[in-house]
Specification:
Layout (H helix, E strand, L loop, with lengths): L9 E13 L2 E12 L11 E2 L2 E2 L6 E2 L23 E3 L7 E2 L2 E2 L6 E4 L6 E5 L12
Length: about 130
């Protein structure tokens, strides 16, 4: 799999079940959740993949999109909306900055530190470096 970096790749999760306010009360509605890796907080400053800083499993994207209509109440599990995204798994043998690197199609947890949805990194930004383990 290709190693992720701070290029414009997208993490996608569905369903992200959120509580929507209606005239009859709160109703859980499944929505999608998107986050972009280019908005992540860097954790590896000295290793570059494709000219951009590399990601590892400690990299966190502080916000995501898709649950804005659930603004006052948030997600069914996390009670948050537009919250953090992070990777759950990485490479078992390749480490950058003391933590496993993250790769294309690795699973993500999105919309909160107590995750409201599980997704994956769907697009890649690097076409040269791979971690096959």
């Amino acid at each position: 799999m290709f190693i992720t970096n701070f290029g414009p790749s997208m993490n996608f999760a569905f369903p992200c079940v959120n509580k929507i306010v209606t005239p009859v009360g709160l109703i859980p509605i499944p929505l999608f959740n998107l986050s972009m890796n280019c908005f992540s907080v860097p954790t590896v400053f000295n290793i570059f993949v494709g000219g951009l800083p590399a990601h590892n499993i400690l990299t966190i994207t502080p916000f995501s999109n898709g649950s804005e209509i659930a603004a006052p109440t948030g997600g069914l599990i996390s009670n948050m909306f537009c919250s953090a995204t992070r990777n759950v798994f990485g490479s078992f043998k390749v480490f950058y900055g003391g933590a496993p690197v993250t790769r294309w199609l690795d699973p993500t947890v999105q919309n909160g530190f107590i995750p409201n949805s599980v997704g994956a990194t769907l697009t890649m930004t690097n076409l040269k470096q791979m971690a096959l383990t």
